Amino acid sequence: MSAYYDLFESPDVQNTGKPQPLYARFIPKGTMGQEEFIDRVHRFTGISHSLLQGAMQAFTDELRDALANGWTVEFGDLGYFTPSLSSRRVMDKKEIRSASVSLRGLNFRLSKQFFRELNEKITFERRPAQEASSDVSGTLSKEECLKLLQEYLQKYPCINRTQYSQLSGRSRKRAIVELNAFIQEGVLAKHGMGKAVVYIMG
């Protein structure tokens, strides 16, 4: 088995209107959910499904608590997790207080060992023509994106803009435009406001 890639045109940041160089980008075959992942580990290890499920939840809980208490956490041979912070920019340390600092996300640093083993194991092949878009740029057509979206929403209750962007390979702006078009067509319904917006089947 191989991982898929496809070629995409680099953004024309200078708006020259000329063809831009192509670059390779990973094309996911889908999303492996937690249940399927646990099933695979269960099949290859013989460890009970319920024990694996409980262990995964315990790992997640301990990871969250350790990060909340100010630790960088090493997650086995996988790598390291560290909180990423957000604050306004100041010239003097006295201009900012603890209440103004907030969590932005998590930084993940892959371990050298895991990278080396993954790099030795992974092989790539161009995405098959029947799965590729008819678009010359190599992106999925709107119809193909809709099919992926419907399959995703059969597994999960909702999707947000970032998830749709990753699923479809669309830029953030194009993802929003396309999601709004699906709403107008009655395919989707939108819930929430701002960054909390999610989309469900219409």
Topology (SSEs and partners):
Elements (H helix, E strand, L loop, with lengths): L2 E7 L12 E6 L6 H12 L3 H20 L4 E3 L3 E8 L15 E9 L1 H10 L2 E3 L15 H14 L5 H8 L3 H13 L3 E4 L6 E4 L1
Parallel strand pairs: 1-6
Antiparallel strand pairs: 1-2, 3-4, 4-5, 7-8
GO molecular function: DNA binding
Protein name: DNA-binding protein
Organism: Bacteroides intestinalis
In a nutshell, what does this entry contain?
The chain is α+β, with helices and mostly antiparallel strands and about 200 residues long.
Walkthrough of the structure:
- The protein is an alpha+beta fold and 202 residues long.
- It has a domain at 140-202: Winged helix-like DNA-binding domain superfamily/Winged helix DNA-binding domain (Arc Repressor Mutant, subunit A, Orthogonal Bundle).
- The chain is built from 6 helices and 8 strands, in the order E-E-H-H-E-E-E-H-E-H-H-H-E-E.
- It has helices spanning 34-45, 49-68, 112-121, 142-155, 161-168, 172-184; strands at residues 3-9, 22-27, 73-75, 79-86, 102-110, 124-126, 188-191, 198-201.
- Strands 2-1-6 form a 3-stranded mixed beta sheet, with no helix packed on it. The protein has a 3-stranded antiparallel beta sheet with strand order 3-4-5. A two-stranded antiparallel ribbon has the order 7-8.
- A hairpin with a 6-residue loop joins strand 7 (188-191) and strand 8 (198-201).
- Helix 5 (161-168) packs across helix 6 (172-184).
- The longest helix has 20 residues, at 49-68.
- The protein is globular, with a radius of gyration of 21 Å.
- The chain starts with a strand and ends with a strand.
- The model is unreliable at 133-138 (pLDDT under 50).
- This is DNA-binding protein.
- InterPro entries: HU-HIG (IPR041607), IHF-like_DNA-bd_dom_sf (IPR010992).
- Keywords: DNA-binding.
- Pfam families: HU-HIG.
- One of its GO terms (molecular function) is DNA binding.
